[in-house]
Design brief:
Blueprint: H1 7-15, H2 34-46, E1 50-57, E2 60-66, E3 76-79, E4 100-101, E5 104-106, H3 114-125, E6 137-142, H4 151-159, E7 164-168, E8 175-179, E9 181-190, H5 205-224, E10 236-244, E11 254-263, H6 269-279, E12 284-290, E13 293-294, H7 300-307, E14 312-315, H8 321-325, E15 330-334, E16 348-350, H9 351-366
Parallel strand pairs: 3-6, 3-7, 7-15, 8-14
Antiparallel strand pairs: 1-2, 2-6, 4-5, 5-16, 8-13, 9-11, 9-12, 10-11
Length: 369
């Protein structure tokens, strides 16, 4: 049996294994979560868990671990941090250095979410003899693809049934039981290209787009502000990008813009899409989304977490917890560190937060007798 793991040293090891999500511009030659899944599988296997690597996309598996239990039929509790990180483009530190300096561990994923992951595993490593006797069967999953598509969570939610899920995220050890969902919208405007010396002969797609965005803002923003969630406020809309044209002296025949809409629980995303189409009938509208989260704070395990100091709160961001909640599973997000450090150019997490996070999860596990 392994000795208990140190969360700081474990995090250093995890940071030094690149696991950048390949979507967009990852900034590394070989993105993906394959290598970290293998490494985590070895660690979890050494802790006595039955481990499987379950490929979700080519070369991108979930790592799923089931810890021993002294009897069948227990409710299942899943610890579920994600293994992928965002791009390392623009970072001002070594993204994979895992350096300890100024009382902090530095590197991509330190906060989001290899730090929370390390504290969960460290806590599990402290209780090898107690885990089988707990009132819950303990599972751990390192989920791929959270940063884009949530493919890992969706796959596992289809494969297994859990009774309570803790998505590892940097929440300052507060229980996030409600968060907004995301609705990402791509707008496409089409025009007619002509020489810019005679623009009246063409149709300017950028003009069409900018006019449509103003109409969308005028119609959708007041509508979203009408409904206020007690924890999360109203749904929001932000124009994220706009790109169009090919050369200065050509009237642009195409323009693309993207919208980021954060949706409160209870809002119908398709209703918002219909409003956008109503405001911009001359544009093509493509959308994808991630669900909002709401788990009743009266749930017994949320009450237990709260009694240990993890106050229930809401959050404006989204995470994998919502995927499991869509299946009717009580789900939350929880972990050490601050979301303010996630995705930053010099990402870090405090060593003290890692130690206190591991201590917290150990106390929580001990409370499951």
């Amino acid at each position: 049996m392994m000795n208990p793991l140190n969360p700081v040293r474990l995090l250093q090891e995890l940071i030094r294994i690149p696991s950048v999500n390949p979507e967009g511009e990852p900034g590394v030659a070989n993105p993906g979560e394959g290598n970290i899944a293998v490494a985590l599988g070895k660690v979890l296997g050494d802790l006595g868990a039955k481990v499987s690597l379950r490929e979700v996309l080519p070369g991108r598996p979930n790592v799923v671990a089931r810890f021993p239990s002294d009897r069948e039929g227990k409710p299942r509790l899943l610890f579920a941090p994600h293994t992928d990180t965002v791009s390392v483009v623009g970072m001002t530190i070594d993204p994979f250095g895992g350096e300890v300096k100024e009382g902090k561990v530095w590197g991509r994923g330190a906060s989001d979410t290899k730090g929370p992951m390390a504290t969960m595993i460290a806590a599990l490593s402290r209780l090898p003899e107690m885990i089988p006797t707990l009132g819950y069967e303990i599972w751990f999953a390192g989920l791929m693809g959270e940063e884009s598509g949530q493919y890992g969570a969706k796959a596992l939610a289809e494969e297994e049934r859990f009774d309570f899920v803790i998505a590892g995220e940097p929440t300052d050890i507060k229980t996030v039981h409600a968060h907004k969902g995301s609705l990402w919208v791509t707008l496409l405007a089409h025009g007619k290209a002509v020489h810019a010396s005679a623009p009246e002969l063409g149709e300017n797609a950028i003009y069409k787009m900018t006019s449509a965005i103003e109409r969308i803002r005028a119609l959708v923003l007041p509508d979203l502000s009408k409904t206020v969630h007690p924890l999360l406020g109203s749904s929001t809309l932000s124009v994220g990008t706009i790109n169009g044209g090919s050369k200065t002296n050509i009237v642009p025949d195409h323009c693309e813009a993207t919208l980021d809409i954060r949706v409160i629980p209870g809002e119908d995303p398709l209703r918002i899409i219909n409003l956008i189409r109503q405001a911009a009938p001359d544009l093509d509208v493509v959308h994808l989304g991630s669900a909002p989260l709401y788990t009743n704070p009266d749930h017994p395990l949320i009450a237990k977490l709260s009694s240990l100091g993890a106050t229930p709160i809401g959050a404006p961001w989204f995470c994998d917890a919502a995927v499991f909640a869509q299946q009717g599973v009580a789900s939350i997000a929880l972990g050490p560190g601050s979301i303010a450090q996630a995705h930053t150019a010099d990402e870090w997490i405090a060593c003290d937060d890692l130690e206190s996070g591991a201590d917290f999860f150990e106390r929580f596990l001990r409370a499951l007798v």
